Amino acid sequence: MTNEVFKSEISPLFKALYGGLITLFSVIAIFSFLYGIEIRLTTIFLVLAISIAIIFYSGYQIRYELTEESLRAKWLFGTKKIEYKRIKDSKSHRIPHRSIRRFGISLLGGHYSHGKIGKFYAIFTSNEGILIKTDESSIYGGQLFISPVNPENFLKKLENKIIEENKTADGTLIP
Questions:
Q1: What residues does 145 pair with on adjacent strands?
Q2: C-alpha to C-alpha distances, 93 to 68, 83, 130, 142, nearest whole angstrom
Q3: Which of 2, 24, 119, 127 lies at 20 to 30 Å from 90 by C-alpha?
Q4: Is 22 left (phi over 0), alpha (psi -120 to 50) or beta?
Q5: For the whole model, what pTM was predicted?
Q6: What is the percent of the chain where pLDDT is above 90?
Q7: Cβ(14)–Cβ(59) under 8 Å?
Q8: 137 by DSSP, 3-state: which?
Q9: What span, in angstroms and rounded, lies between the C-alpha atoms of 98 and 159?
Q10: pLDDT tens-digit series, residues 119-174
Q11: Which helix (DSSP H) or strand (DSSP E) does residue 35 occupy?
């Protein structure tokens, strides 16, 4: 059987934020260059615009794969893998914008904490997605938040993979 690959849902907020920053720093770099402002300052703004463009592009490269034995979330900073047999629950979820960052960088994911949710790891570009509960040895906080395109379809396919994983040789389900 082949891997099923899902792209990340890109929210309008994500597009506006990163697109706006790229535009702002590009315009500042162009005006700095045209008005003869110090070349180092122009270079700094140009490097900022290019760096943000790379981060923006990397949001479009986030992939969630359903393989034979595990869910894999791939992004700019690596891959997170959770075996189906370790998944305890999965459901549609909306991450509140007031989620509190625990540590790490805050580009397209990382370590988060929120009063109602607790600690979780996120690889996302939209606050609408799926919260997957597992054990803490699998991922930070025992929870992963992802934002695939068509989350309902993804959730159905994930649940089918979990059911397949929990079947015994004679076809009965392991409780």
A1: 122, 131
A2: 25, 21, 5, 15
A3: 2
A4: alpha
A5: 0.83
A6: 56
A7: yes
A8: coil
A9: 29
A10: 999 999 888 999 999 999 899 999 999 999 999 999 999 999 998 887 654 555 55
A11: none
Give the integer Cα–Cα distance in Å for 4 and 82. 15
In the structure encoding, which two tokens stand for residue 1, read together?
């059987």
Dist CA 22 CA 174 (whole Å): 51
Contacts 24+ apart (CB under 8 A), 140-145: 140/111, 141/111, 141/113, 143/117, 143/118, 143/119, 144/71, 144/73, 144/80, 144/82, 144/120, 145/93, 145/95, 145/112, 145/120, 145/121
Q: How many whole angstroms separate alpha carbon 149 and alpha carbon 115?
A: 27
- Per the CB < 8 A criterion, the answer to whether 148 and 6 are in contact is yes
Taking a C-beta distance cutoff of 8 angstroms, is the pair 84, 147 a contact?
no
